[in-house]
Amino acid sequence: MQPVTPYRPSVSSPAQLPYPGQLELEVGGLATRADGGHRNSLPYALKLGFSDSWGVVVGGEAWVSAPDDHGGRAHGVGDTTFVLKRAFLVDSATAFGLELGAKAPTARDSIGSGRADYSVNGIYSHDFDLVHMDANVNLTRLGVWDDGSSRTQTGLSASFSVPVSERWGVTGELSGTRRGGVDRTAQALVAAAYSPSKYMTLDVGLAKGLNRASADWSLFGGVVLPLARLW
C-alpha cells in the first residue's frame, strides 16, 4: 500500500489525487444542528486515481437521520455524487485541479432534493513552508430552486493545514456560498488529524455557522484508509 491522500475533513478539496491504482475510503460521522433541528449522517467517499493527472471520486451518505415535514424523522441513504477530477501538478509545492461533478438523487425526497445537481470546482493547492493551503471556487447548477432565486450557486472556501508533530496536524477553514435571491452562508471550521501511520488518518472537528443562513454548528469525525491496490 501507498500513503493515503486525505480529502476530509475540510470543505475544500486538494488538487492532488490518491496514488494511482490505490482505492481509498473516507468515512465518518456528522451531526448538524440547523433551524432548531438535528441532522445526523454517515458521509463516505471512494477515491481512485488512474494516474497523477486523472481520477474519480464517488461519495455520499450511507445513512441519514433528518427531520421530515410531519414533525418526525426520516431515515435512509443520502444522495450520491460522482466526480471526475483532473490534477495539474506544477511542482512539489504547487498544483491546480478541476472537478466536474454530478449529484444523483438517490435519497428519499424528505432527505434529499429529489433532483440532480451539476457542479464544476476549481482548485489551487500550495505549500507555504509548513502550511498547506487548498483554495476552491465552484459553481453548482441546482436541480431544485425557489421562485425568485437563482438556480446557480457559487461556493468559495480556503483551508490551511499545519503539522504540530510527526503524527498530529491541525486545520482551519473559512467557506461559504452565494446565490441570488437567498441569503449567503458562511462557516468556520477547525479540526485535528492524527496519523498513526502513513496508511491511515483519523480526524475530529467542529464547524460553526457565521450567520443566520448557515447551520448553527456541526460536529464530525472520520478516517481515511486504503482499501486495495487495483494495479
Q: How far apart are the first and last residues' alpha carbons, in Å?
A: 11 Å
> How many separate structural domains?
1
Structural class by sheet pairing and helices? mainly beta
Q: In this structure, how is the largest beta sheet organized?
A: 12 strands, antiparallel, barrel
Question: Can you offer a commentary on this structure?
Answer:
With 231 residues, this protein is mainly β. It has one domain (22-229): Porin (Beta Barrel), CATH 2.40.160.40. Helix content is 0%, strand content 64%. The chain is built from no helices and 13 strands. It has strands spanning 22-34, 37-49, 54-67, 73-76, 80-89, 94-104, 117-128, 131-141, 152-163, 168-178, 185-197, 200-209, 217-229. A twelve-stranded antiparallel β-barrel has the order 1-2-3-5-6-7-8-9-10-11-12-13. β9 and β10 form a beta hairpin. It starts with 21 loop residues before the first strand and ends with a strand.
Name some characteristics of this structure.
single chain; 231 residues; mainly beta; Porin; 12-stranded antiparallel β-barrel; 13 strands; 0% helix; Transporter
